[in-house]
Automatic annotation (TrEMBL):
Name of the protein: General secretion pathway, M protein
Keywords in alphabetical order: Membrane, Transmembrane, Transmembrane helix
Taxon lineage: Bacteria, Pseudomonadati, Pseudomonadota, Gammaproteobacteria, Lysobacterales
Transmembrane segments: 21-39
Region spans: Disordered: 83-105
A GO BP entry: protein secretion by the type II secretion system
Pfam families for the chain: T2SSM
Species this protein is from: Xanthomonas fragariae
InterPro entries associated with the record: T2SS_GspM (IPR007690)
GO cellular component: a single term: type II protein secretion system complex
Length: 105
C-alpha cells in the first residue's frame, strides 16, 4: 500500500464503530443525492422532451394524412367529372341522363 492509503486506513481504524456507521450512512446519502441529480433528473428531462417530439410527430402525421385524404378525394372528384364529361360529350342536351350521373354533377 502507498503511504496515503496507509494513513487513510489508520485514520479509519481510529474511529469508533459508531462513527464508522454514521460516516457510511452519510456517504450513502451523499451518493444517493448525486445519483438523483446525475441520473434521475436528466432522464426525466429526456423523457419529457421525447414525449414532446412524439406529440409533434403524431400531429404532423395526422395533418399529412388529412392532406393526403383531401387530395385523394379531390383527385377522385376531378377524375369522375372528367370521365362524366367525356362520356356525355357529343350527346344532345335533351338526352336523358343516366340515374347515376347526378353523383358527379
Amino acid at each position: 500500500m502507498s503511504n496515503q492509503q496507509q494513513r487513510m486506513h489508520a485514520w479509519w481504524q481510529t474511529r469508533a464503530p459508531r462513527a464508522r456507521i454514521m460516516l457510511k450512512a452519510m456517504l450513502a446519502a451523499v451518493a444517493a443525492v448525486v445519483a438523483w441529480y446525475a441520473v434521475v433528473v436528466p432522464s426525466r428531462h429526456w423523457r419529457s422532451s421525447a414525449q414532446a417530439r412524439d406529440d409533434i410527430a403524431a400531429e404532423t402525421l395526422l395533418d399529412a394524412r388529412g392532406v393526403q385524404r383531401n387530395r385523394a378525394v379531390a383527385v377522385g372528384r376531378g377524375c369522375a367529372r372528367s370521365h362524366h364529361a367525356a362520356y356525355t360529350r357529343g350527346r344532345h342536351r335533351h338526352h336523358q341522363p343516366r340515374p347515376w350521373s347526378h353523383r358527379w354533377a
